[in-house]
Amino acid sequence: MKVLHVVETAYRATLEEQDDTVLWLLQVLRVAGAELAVLLQGSAVSYILRTQDASGLAFGGWHQTRPPNMATQLAALIHDGVPVYAVEEDITDRGIRESRCIGGIRPLTRARVVELFDGFDQVWQW
Amino acid sequence: MSDRKVLTFVLMDAPFESARTSTALRLIQTALDRGHAVNVFAYEGAVALAFAQQKAHANAVHGCNAQEENHPLPSTWIAELIATAAAAGTRLDWVNCGLCVDERGVNEAVAGVRRGSPVDLWTMAQASDNVLVIATR
Question: Which of B133, B134, B136 to mutate to test the interface with A (most CBs of A within 10 A)?
């Protein structure tokens, strides 16, 4: 069963969880044998920026030593053969330049999203 | 082909935060009433939905004591849904993500709720007719 996972809401408790919890879940599902792909849209397209830096969080004497890095999470999925798509208009709207992004992202226009859906048995909207 | 389906729901919202949860539980109720088998994978804050230590309270603004207020508890709703499934001759398999439970210290769930992992989600999804994700926004 091929499932397209649409990730739209970004930075859901990523400082607390040290990752995007949906991308983490997908990494587990892939190891469990799931055939999957990811479509980033809306604010989640920001995850393709490799220049993000969430380090430095501290409360009193507590310092976060392992901050989240969603670009690394995405790169790991891509490395494992998971197709990662991102909506071009959402990238452009946010002024994200290709030179600052991780490699392997597959941009597609919003008009082609439905066409993408056709290639999957199910679409899970996160 | 049987009219009875197997449906999997993925929930993410914590209790007392969003109407998405009560809507999801109403969908589950409808599915069970129609004899369909339902799986739930509770992820992140949704693992607290079945926490057995939820407590109803009085409401001074309403001028009601706890009994009069009849404050809703998601854990009660889930227990009722599990009973509904049994009465309808079907099943509600509610799985809490174990790591999410540990993070929140909500490891005491109402009867019929079990601890699992994302692998359980994938297993349930593969055996289902369809999957509905109701994620936190």
Answer: B133
Q: What number of other Cβ atoms are within 10 A of residue A51's Cβ?
A: 10
Cα angle B32, B108, B125; round to 5? 40
Domain of A47 in residue numbering reads as 2-125
Taking the Cβ of residue B9 and every Cβ of chain A, the question of whether any pair is shorter than 8 Å is answered with no
Contact of B2 with chain A, judged by CB distance below 8 Å, is answered with no
Q: Do A125 and B133 touch (CB under 8 A)?
A: yes
**Residues of chain A found within 8 Å of residue B123, distances taken between Cβ atoms:** 32
pLDDT tens by residue, A52-96? 999 999 999 999 999 999 999 999 999 999 999 999 999 999 999
DSSP assignment of chain B equals --S--EEEEEE-PPTTS-HHHHHHHHHHHHHHHTT-EEEEEE-GGGGGGGBTT-----BTTTTB-HHHHT---HHHHHHHHHHHHHHTT--EEEEEEHHHHHHHT---B-TTEEEE-HHHHHHHHHTSSEEEEE---
Q: Which domains are seen in chain B, by residue range? A: 6-49+63-74+82-134 (3.40.1260.10)
Complex prediction ipTM:
0.84
User: In the numeric block, which tokens belong to residue B41?
Assistant: 């994978």
Cβ pair B136:A9 closer than 8 A: yes
Chain A residues in contact with B117 by the CB 8 A cut-off are 28
With an 8 Å Cβ cutoff, are B135 and A22 in contact? Answer: yes
Number of domains chain A is built from: 1
**Does residue B1 carry a pLDDT above 60?**
no
